[in-house]
Amino acid sequence: MLNALLVAFAVALAAPWSVGRLGRSAGWVLALLPAGLTLYLLSLGRGVAAGEPYAQRLAWVPQLGVELAFRVDGLALMFGLLITGIGTLVAIYAGGYLAGDRQLPRFYLLLFAFMAAMLGVVTSDDLILLFVFWELTSITSFFLIGYKHESEESRANALQGLFVTAGGGLAMLAGFVLLGSMAGTFRISELLASPAVLVEHPAYPAALVLVALGAFTKSAQWPFHFWLPNAMAAPTPVSAYLHSATMVKAGVYLLARLAPALGGTPQWFWLLTLVGVATVLGATALTLLQRDSKRLLAYSTIVALGTMVLLIGVGTPAAIKAMVVFLFAHALYKAPLFMTAGSVDHEAGTRDVTRLAGLGRKMPWTWLAAGLAGLSAAGLPPMLGFVGKELAYESLYGAPWLLAALVAAGAVLLLVAFLVAWVPFAGREARSPQAAHEAPPSMLVGPLVIAPLGLLFGLAPGLLQDGLMRPAAAAVLGEPYAFDLYLWHGLTPALFLSLLTVALGVAVAAGWRRWQPALRARFAAVRAGPVALYEGAWRALLRFAEVQTRVVQPDDLRHHLTIIVAFTVVLTGAVALWRDGLASALWAPAAAYLHEILYFAVILLATATVVRSHSRLVVITSLGVVGFGVAFVFVLFAAPDLAITQFLVDTLVVIIAALVLIRLPSSALRAEGGRDTRWLSGVIAIAGGALIAGLLLAVTGLPLDDSLTRFFEANSYPVARGRNIVNVILVDFRAVDTLAEVVVLAVAAAGVAALLRRRIAGRRDDAGAGRPESEGGDR
Amino acid sequence: MNSLILRLTTRPIIVVLLLISVFLLLRGHDLPGGGFIGGLVAAAAAALYAIAFGPTAAARLLRVRPELLVGWGMATTVVAGLLGMVAGREFLTGLWWVVAVGDQEIKLSTPLLFDVGVYLVVVGVVLRFVLSLEER
Question: Which of A562, A510, A503, A527 has the alpha carbon at shortest distance from A682?
Answer without folding.
Answer: A562
